Amino acid sequence: MKPESNPLPSALAPSVAPSGASGGQQAAPAGGSRVQRVRHELKRRELTVLGVDDVTPNFRRVTLGGESLADFVSASFDDHVKLIFDASGDAPVMRDYTPRRHDAAARELVIEFAQHGDGPAAAWAAQAVPGQSLTVGGPRGSFIVPVDYDWHLLAGDETALPAVARRLEELPPGTRVIALLNVPESDRRHFQTTADVDLRWVDGDEALLAAARALTLPDGEGYAWCAGEAAAMTALRRVLVEEKGHDRHAIRASAYWKRGASHHHEHLE
Q: Which residue ranges have biased composition labelled Low complexity (predicted)?
């Protein structure tokens, strides 16, 4: 989930393949790592709410459906789609969210919404009922982290929970994972996974940084993925790379939101 993030005007563009893409996709290494960047055909879909469930007191899961999902592609656990809401102004309002789950055969897409604020996405999710419509654009690309690293570190706040949950479901049995999650107790959840997970819940940004500093990173080749508030994720990346000596090519840190800003989303590496 990437709440209240900056809209990209191209999310409203007609369905066209990105320049240089073959069949709407193109893969390339990202920096000096084994991660692959894949571009997808940009497409806007009109979907219908099929169901609404409360995951925890402050998280709502909305299942969307439609035949236009037949060619929907989400190749990475931290992909994002544009949710496009009608607004009173001249332009629609767009927000970035993680595809929590996609079932191609059933033509279903699941999105989870944090219900902490009063932004347009949270407000829409709070009143969503089956039969309503929602416009979804993208994803325009995927950042594919191989699953065969010796170990994985997943860290972030509650906005990272949908991506973390999806990643833990997708990792192979026995995969070694350390998860550091800064989440209020009321929104902590059980994860479905066959990975070997060392899960550590913390309360607050400083506690998250302290937990990272206290880590002894495992031997072997590892990959760190971090997402949450901008300043906290910048500091966490610094701890992992500069203090712990983690390979800067094997980390992805993203600011899903920023204190004091209504719309924010950036990759920090």
A: 7-33
